[in-house]
Amino acid sequence: MHIPYQSSPTSSLGVEWELQLVDRETRQLSSGAAEILSVLGHGGEHPTAKKELLQSTIEVITGVCTTVPEAMADLGRTIEQVVPLAAERGLGLMCTGTHPITDWQTQKISDDDRYRKLLDDMQWLARRMQIFGVHVHVGVRSPDKAIAMVNALSAYIPHFLALSASSPYWVGKDTGLASSRSKVFECLPTAGLPHQLDGWAQFESYMETLIKTRTISSIKEVWWDVRPHPTYGTVELRIADGLPTLAEVSMVAALSQCLVDTFDREIDKGYTLPRPRRWVVQENKWRAARYGLEASIIVGEDGVQPVRDALRELVQDMRPSAQRLGCASELDVVEQVLEGGASYARQRSVAAASGGDLLAVVDSLLAEFEAGHPLWLPAREPAELVGEPGAAGAAAGGGG
């Protein structure tokens, strides 16, 4: 089976951000995407705002961008169009890996043949896919490079997951995990960790087997945490939980672009990219999902390292690429999250300060999205995290 690969300019960038529509009175997920998208697209399809599985979701996407700031500006322009249309309908926008309180059984599915087929094939597994993520595409020139990079990027799945973890709650209960979304999603038979392959020919052979055996009908139905995307000519990193703020989306985009750019240069110098052992990646992903930034991950043959230290080392290694790519300030957000708390920790802090009130958690997430920056934890009492959105946004470092 021949799968054509559309070569991309090195390190070009595309970002997809799945946003939740939330009723501002009940704080529950609420349908409204179809109506909003119809207005945006004047009855047709909008180029950068798309429907998703649930009618309470709008996915905003960029075009092909060169830099992280360009991609964030692209997302911002689409959001500026969506926000007032949502507000007219009493809806706010936010994003986390899961919604803290809404029961997935109450949600309506978008009218789309692809989604109907997914539900028919996967049944209960698909019906409970009330989850939200951020996907980053980075351009790669050749298919064999893309496969080598997917293998190498697998080692960084726990780094991205710990940094972005934002789904401690599921249907009103604390799961005890930093990222429950990652565990819900990997239950799909073609989701989760990528298979380590030797090259594009082996990828083509594997996809051919899946299609011939009717496991999938299209290679788009292989939802690995990191995957090659032949139509776009990219490596797509899909591991991140839904991120509440544009600042955190920029952070994940910067880290993704820097890693792929670094790997591209290593290959051009004649180096072979490392291929981590699957069992190590699987264990490290679990640790990141369970403990977030408090995890210690397996490194080397028999050692462990706090994921915080691993992230700081990674950022240091990526600084030359960040300077070259124009995303140094966005990469610096990693350190801010390490100091100020990832979303799962911020949500739990708000819940603790409000006596377990998860409506307050939703309010804080709506405020963070509007501000464009997290409501950081350090040097403040937890009660301050549930103050007025404007004050919190200013304390966090400004607007969106």
SSE order in H/E notation? EHEEHEHHEHHEEHEHEEEHHEEHHHHHH
Helix count, per DSSP? Answer: 16
Helix content: 40-55%
What is the level 1 CATH name?
Alpha Beta
Alpha-carbon distance between the two ends: 46 Å
Q: Cα-atom Rg, whole angstroms?
A: 20 Å
Biggest sheet descriptor: 7 strands, antiparallel
Measured by DSSP, the beta-strand proportion falls in 5-15%
Q: Runs with pLDDT <50, length 5+? A: 380-400
**Could you say which overall geometry the principal axes of the C-alpha atoms support?**
globular
Class inferred from helices and paired strands = alpha+beta
Mean pLDDT: 93
Give the total of beta strands. Answer: 13
CATH architecture: 2-Layer Sandwich
The CATH topology label is: Creatine Kinase, Chain A, domain 2
Number of structural units classed as domains? 1
